[in-house]
């Protein structure tokens, strides 16, 4: 009989080897795919959240806390620090000649001191800048423009000598699409004879450019309460127009530390009036600034409120 050579493995041994090899291959593939998915979540392309626009008046809310979402009641007002949540407000110059037109230029930098360049559009703008003197006079609501290198600029005139406070109110968009709302503050100075004005007494009605503006409601420390503003012209209720996507914008600043709240109203007018839900974080005197638009012109009505 001819020599048939060494006997090959039987069928049961082959099946076992194939099963074991398949299991090993599955484990290796699963491990590799798991690593791929984890890396993709951290460094993948931005989500559609980067295109977010806050609809006018949806879920009336405060921009007040130093960081995080702007829904709900803030524990502390914003704008008290130049750095928060890993971001820093860095003005390129902070001194202005009183009464002379100038240019405010600044960057928002991350924890690695790199200029931030991705911001969400919130109420029609990627950046809301509020400027006011420390005696709460000279209020301005501005909207800077950003260059490709992350430098923001806006024309600015500080009308009177003194110390001024600038608040940058913005929402950063991360590479993964996550959004962080932040309000940072920094001081500006206009050298000269600073004569602070006393804060006007509390009142629920005021006049501005021929319009009478009044409000109803009583702010309370730590509570969310409605404030309803009515704007009347010579012939009755003024024909209010949307400004920055809403019928009005309300900024509240606390006397002393100048803590900042930016409040947005209901989507539609309520009986012809602008309705806000305001949460004041603590007692004290606050100055309220209501921006409203009639005949394509924006005006600001100011009130002093004592919160207990």
Task: Characterize this entry briefly.
The protein has 1 helix and 22 strands. The chain has 308 residues and is mainly beta.
Give structural attributes.
single chain; 308 residues; mainly beta; 5-stranded antiparallel beta sheet; 11% helix; disordered N terminus
Q: What does this entry look like structurally?
A:
The radius of gyration is 29 Å and the shape is globular. Helix content is 11%, strand content 41%. It has 308 residues and is mainly beta. A hairpin with a 6-residue loop joins strand 8 and strand 9 (140-142). It has one helix spanning 11-43, and strands spanning 53-54, 62-63, 67-68, 83-84, 87-91, 102-109, 121-122, 127-133, 140-142, 145-146, 151-156, 162-173, 179-190, 205-208, 211-216, 224-233, 236-237, 249-254, 260-263, 274-279, 284-294, 297-307. Strands 2-19-18-21-22 form a five-stranded antiparallel sheet, with no helix packed on it. The protein contains one helix and 22 strands.
Q: What is the tally of helical segments? A: 1
Average pLDDT works out at: 83
What's the helical proportion of residues? 10-25%
The overall strand count is: 22
* Order of strands across the main sheet: 2-19-18-21-22
Overall spatial form: globular
Category from helices, strands and their pairing: mainly beta
Question: What is the distance, rounded to the nearest whole angstrom, between the alpha carbons of the first and last residues?
Answer: 111 Å
Draw up the topology in text:
Elements: H1 11-43, E1 53-54, E2 62-63, E3 67-68, E4 83-84, E5 87-91, E6 102-109, E7 121-122, E8 127-133, E9 140-142, E10 145-146, E11 151-156, E12 162-173, E13 179-190, E14 205-208, E15 211-216, E16 224-233, E17 236-237, E18 249-254, E19 260-263, E20 274-279, E21 284-294, E22 297-307
Parallel strand pairs: 1-7
Antiparallel strand pairs: 2-19, 3-13, 4-5, 5-6, 6-11, 8-9, 8-12, 10-11, 12-13, 14-15, 15-16, 16-17, 16-20, 18-19, 18-21, 21-22
